[in-house]
Amino acid sequence: MTSGALARVIRSAARRRADAEHCDLCGAGIPSEHRHLLDTSQEEVLCACRPCSLLFVEDAASEGRYRLVPQRRVRLPPVATKALGVPVGLAFFVRRADGTVSAHYPSPAGATRWEADPEAWRDVVARCPPLATLEPDVEALLVNTARSAKHHWIAPIDDCFRVVALVRREWRGLSGGSRVWPAVDEFFAELTEQPQ
């Protein structure tokens, strides 16, 4: 083999390794279907191999830096979120360990965040008791009522971050263009209930 051919093989192998998914903790290669951890100090979702994800199987009361993101998805009846101050129809709400609730909505610049009114959140939970079971930091109320859609879910936080990434990737111009809303509709159409 010539040195040029050997260099091409090495570059090709390096590209394949770079394209493959890796555990963000230990660097091991992982399959496309894998678990995620939430780094609570950075509010960042990390990919995890099976051994690393098993290290962080913690209960909701844990105060560890890394929290295993659950896989539970529950379709809810319509939830009235207007009192929570949502200016748009696509948003998610995360209950924190301290009891506060942060609201987020995807935008072309990423997720815009604000603190939801505690009294309004308590009223929403009183009308929809399953919301009282949200695991702090790692599950959210995910809502899509944009353009006459009616989707209300208890969802893992990684699903919410996927919606944010989708909106950032597909948004064009001032109004979103022709690609963003069909992509959002497809995302919600593919969600399936997954009790845990």
Distance between the termini: 54 Å
Largest sheet: 6 strands, antiparallel
Mean pLDDT: 86
Strand order of the largest sheet: 4-9-8-5-6-7
Element-level helix/strand string: HEEHEEEEEHEEHH
Shape: globular
Structural class: alpha+beta
Please tell me the total number of domains: 2
Protein name: DUF5947 family protein
InterPro entries: DUF5947
Pfam families: DUF5947
What can you tell me about this protein's structure?
- The chain is an alpha+beta fold and 196 residues long.
- It contains 5 helices and 9 strands, in the order αββαβββββαββαα.
- The protein has 2 domains: 3-68, no CATH class; 74-190, no CATH class.
- Helices cover 30% and strands 23% of the residues.
- Strands 4-9-8-5-6-7 form a 6-stranded antiparallel β-sheet, covered by helices on one side. A 3-stranded antiparallel β-sheet has the order 2-1-3.
- Helix 4 (157-170) runs antiparallel to helix 5 (180-190).
- The radius of gyration is 19 Å and the shape is globular.
- Pfam families: DUF5947.
- InterPro entries: DUF5947.
